[in-house]
Amino acid sequence: MQHQYFVSAIGTDSGKTVVSAILVEALKAHYWKPIQAGLPKDTDQVKNLVSNTESIFLKERFCLTAPMSPHAAAKIDNIKIDLSDFEIPKEGKNKNLIVEGAGGLFVPINDGQNGKADYVIDLIEELNLPLILVCNLYLGSINHSILSLEAIKNRNIKLKGIIFNGESNPTSEQIIEDYIIHQLNSKVLLRIKQEEKVTKEVIKKYTQQIVW
């Protein structure tokens, strides 16, 4: 069975790259970061955390200089980004594939036309991939998680599941888990603890804990 998923999150620095590495390792999948903004490159970070020799790391469609929102970074580099620019690379078609987004669901990838920007959530729809959402845990994460999940529901995007990342907060997790079960017919795939250091061994450990 072919597994292809888009990894997004409820915000920036939520742990998408670590999650992507876990999924790539678990599925021996190829990896693609369509838009990279700033250094270090997430592709290199995932590559350094993966142990299997089957995964291929595909070239970014856009590699922007500044570490900021793609729409702003593209302006600095004098690059125009359109949704029509994106298509799964031929090396990733018909293969297990993990696609990592930039920031959260509503990070703009351009200024759009007539006041309507395109966002990461539009890219998910354009690529037509099931979504895995990273929900990191902090004060306010319930609100940010439910707002993200509401948008996913309203767009009829297929949610494969969510992954909690960070120090456990059972009361927050329960509220979010109840929502995805009852509103999106989905589930929690994995819970990642607050790790002092993320290594290849840590990545391997979590591949054994995924509930597909």
Can you walk me through this structure?
This protein is α/β, with parallel strands linked by helices and 212 residues long. The protein has a single domain, classed as Rossmann fold. Helix content is 34%, strand content 17%. It is built from seven helices and eight strands; from the N terminus they run βαββαβαβαβαβαβα. The chain has a six-stranded parallel sheet with strand order 2-5-1-6-7-8, sandwiched between helices. The radius of gyration is 16 Å and the shape is globular. The protein starts with a strand and ends in a 5-residue tail after the last helix.
Q: What is the secondary structure topology, with strand pairs?
A:
Layout: E1 4-9, H1 16-27, E2 30-32, E3 35-37, H2 42-49, E4 62-64, H3 70-76, E5 97-100, H4 120-127, E6 131-136, H5 141-154, E7 159-165, H6 170-184, E8 188-192, H7 200-207
Parallel strand pairs: 1-5, 1-6, 2-5, 3-4, 6-7, 7-8
Helix pairs in contact: 1-2, 1-7, 5-6
**Which CATH class is shown?**
Alpha Beta
What strand line-up does the widest sheet have? 2-5-1-6-7-8
Nearest-integer average pLDDT:
97
Question: CATH H level: which superfamily?
Answer: P-loop containing nucleotide triphosphate hydrolases
Q: How large, in whole angstroms, is the Cα Rg?
A: 16 Å
How many helix segments? 7
Percent range for β-strand residues: 15-25%
